[in-house]
Amino acid sequence: MLSGLLAQVPAPVVALKPGEVLGFVLVDITIILIAALVFGALARRLGQPTVVGQIVAGVVLGPSLLGPTLFTWGGSWDLLHCDVSLASTQGVPSITSCVFPPQARSAISVIGQLGLIFYMFLVGTEVDFSRLRGRGRAIGTVAVGAVAFPLGLGLLIGPTLYNQRWVAGFGGDAQPSQMAFSLMVGAMLAVTAFPVMAHILQEKGLSRSVMGSVGIAAAATVTVLMFLLVGTAASVARHASAGDILLKVVWAVVYIGVLFLVVRPLLAPLGRAAEEQGAVTQGMFGAIFVLVFASSYVADRIGINVIPGAFLAGAILPARELIFQEMRAKLRDLTVVVLLPVFLAFSGLNTDFTTLGVAYMGGIALFLVAGVVGKWVGGAVSARAAGLSWAEGNLLGVLMNCRGLLILVAALIALQSNVISPALQTGAVLMALITTAMTGPLFDAFLPAAVAASEPAAVGSPER
After folding, report:
1. What structural domains does the chain harbor?
2. What percent of the chain is modeled with pLDDT above 90?
3. Which of 23, 95, 135, 208 is the least crowded, having the fewest Cβ atoms under 10 Å away?
4. DSSP secondary-structure letter at 281?
């Protein structure tokens, strides 16, 4: 599937020299980081997460504003070699296509994927298993409900959206089945921005409460289930047999079992050495990233994507408190400030809002409403079924509804698996922006009732 994530990028053109490609990559990353810093700062001033501004930055750099729909760039500067870089793609010269040529986008895509791997690894190191003991049923109930509700809505609205506007290759030999398309829509609706959810609960001092610990663990489980759904939908789209799909699920279970039952105990000496020295040495750092990349590769080959592979690699590390602090200090700023904005910009470069006419508005609205209702209601109802109060469940539903950047990952996989159209990918970008932006205000509005219903001793306890 990792190779599929790069499939959308056109093949390199030999006429553009390697040195010129490198120059474009360096300039493009510079532009991306400047835009991400500016729009990220603006988002924070408006009380929104930085990721909202970074997503907007990617869209601004893309064809929505700087593409050929609004204007072409026939007289582009000679130093951009626009005619050469667009020769094989028959692209129309514009600021986006000339400044971000297809050859440079290949490198940008790889760098963005590495950012996602590092980010999800760091999220995995944050999972505190000591908070989860004795809460397996509650965690499972919330996770299943937070996936089942949106998946059901995806299967419900899938037939309505199954037309040439939203389905890739509709009417052709490569047209995916209605079931494959509906499953993929359900998987996209099931996304939860686990990192954003964990950060908000920790920031508010609620991650040690029953509500917080159950919610964080359930969101982590939802992330794995969502990627399993995406992989299953892609397999159905390729007309894989039921046996092949079942085999993929079996391999995923085996892979997770080996990580926790075999690899995790083997890492115990590394944890003891780190605790004895009070730090993660260079050798330990290298060994940890051998694990991260190997786990990501295996997860990708199985078909559940590199993202859960990186997350699970972080989740099985020993000496969790020490390694969490060390890895956060060594890696977080590089990942969040530099690498993730590159991925978000790559998503924006493939998003064109100018293609959405009035005829698309009904489908986009249906997709957005189903997404919000499925996650919010599904999270709240399943949390209540798990034994939490309605106030706590409602707050978890609000957090589960936040999509962050993970829905962009799911949408990119869906697009490059030839299941959804570029228009529906654009709908996913809208979903990311709207649900992430609404999370903060709704969380603050419903927080007092949830705090009153939480365990008094747990709420506000010191965070690590």
Report:
1. 2-110 (no CATH), 113-339+355-453 (1.20.1530.20)
2. 30
3. 23
4. -
